[in-house]
Amino acid sequence: MRLEPHRLVFLDETGTTTKMIRLRGRCLKGQRLRSKAPFGHWKTQTFIAGLRCYGLTAPFVVDRPMNRRIFETYVETQLAPTLSPGDVVILDNLAAHKSPRAEAAIRARGAWMLFLPPFSIRRVEVKHFRAIYSADF
C-alpha cells in the first residue's frame, strides 16, 4: 500500500444534533436570557464520507443517526460505485459497519474492508483530516 496510497479509502462519519445549544448563558443582571434553537426542531444529521489521498469521495448526509440500514444504503448507492478493484476501505469498529450486506457490496467491486483496532492513532488522523475538510463545507 505504500506504493499505491490512492487505493486507500478511510471511511468515517460524524453527527450533529439541533439539541446542541447552550443550556446557560450570560446577560445583564436582572434580565432574562433569550435564545433560539436552530431549525426549531430536534433532529440529528449524520455526514459520512470516504477520504482518499486526493480528497473526499462519496459524501452523504442523512437526517438520522447512523445505523446498519443507513450504512448499507450508503455503501450500495454512494461508496461502492466509486471503488475500483484492489481498493481498501478502512473503517472504525462501529457496529453498523460490520454488515455482511455492505461487505458483499464492497467485495463485488473487487475491494476489501479493513477494520481499525478499538483505538488507533490512525483513527485520530482520520478525524483530524475530517475536521480540516469539514471546515471547507
What do you see in this structure?
The chain contains 3 helices and 5 strands, in the order E-E-E-H-E-H-E-H. The chain has one domain: Ribonuclease H-like superfamily/Ribonuclease H (Nucleotidyltransferase, domain 5, 2-Layer Sandwich). The chain has 137 residues and is an alpha/beta fold. The chain has a 5-stranded mixed beta sheet, with helices on both faces.
Number of helices: 3
Overall structural domain count: 1
The CATH top-level class label: Alpha Beta
What is the helix fraction of residues, given as a range?
A: 25-40%
- What is Rg? 18 Å
Extended strand count: 5
How far the N terminus sits from the C terminus, by CA atoms, comes to 30 Å
Mean pLDDT: 85
CATH superfamily: Ribonuclease H-like superfamily/Ribonuclease H
How would you characterize the largest beta sheet? Answer: 5 strands, mixed
- Unreliable stretches (pLDDT < 50, length at least 5) are none
Strand order of the largest sheet: 3-2-1-4-5
CATH architecture field: 2-Layer Sandwich
| Broad shape | elongated
Strand content: 25-35%
Structural class determined from secondary elements: alpha/beta
Succession of helices and strands: EEEHEHEH
CATH topology: Nucleotidyltransferase, domain 5
Write the layout of secondary structure elements.
Layout: E1 8-17, E2 44-52, E3 55-62, H1 68-79, E4 88-91, H2 100-108, E5 112-115, H3 121-136
Please supply descriptive tags for the structure shown above.
137 residues, alpha/beta, Nucleotidyltransferase, domain 5, five-stranded mixed sheet, 3 helices, 27% helix, 26% strand, elongated
